[in-house]
Amino acid sequence: MTSSYLSLFLLAFLIANGPTLACISPFFSFDSECVYVDPVTSGNWSEMRNYCQSLYSRADLISFQSFTYFGDIIEYIHDRGWPKQVFWVGGTDEGHEGVWSYVDGSLMAMGAPYWALTNCDGIIIQPDGNTQQNCAALDGDYYYYMTDKECEYQHGHPICYYDS
Ligand SMILES: [Ca+2]
User: Fold this and answer.
1) Domains of the chain
2) Cα(61) to centroid of ligand 1, in Å?
3) Which of 1, 12, 67, 109 is the most exposed place for a label (fewest CB within 10 A)?
């Protein structure tokens, strides 16, 4: 009798909590995707893209398909209490200046709420680096809103993800 109650309890627990999303280490389950934010490893955009792919063949630098997801990632970074850093995002306008796309080929949404304002009165919105800055990053100096940076900037950390 006790064991059948236990089984019933276990079944109820599993139903209540849903299927657990299994992510390959070091990725963790995040909003139905598998994400890994690495505050230690750093390098330029291409190096960090390769780094994500070295962790798992289907992984890449992150793309944001909704502003809710974008906000959740920023909240995650804020909650860690790390010092201000730069995190690479899988977005670029290299070779097609002004047309920003993610590494999966989808177009990036421009403007609010993704991209940072350059100054307080909001006259210039990022990206503003023209052909000098072709890689997207979340920059702690801009409260982790998106900015365009030189792709060769060496101190960006990766936000890797893959679709689960
Ligand atoms: Ca550019």
Assistant:
1) 26-163 (3.10.100.10)
2) 18
3) 1
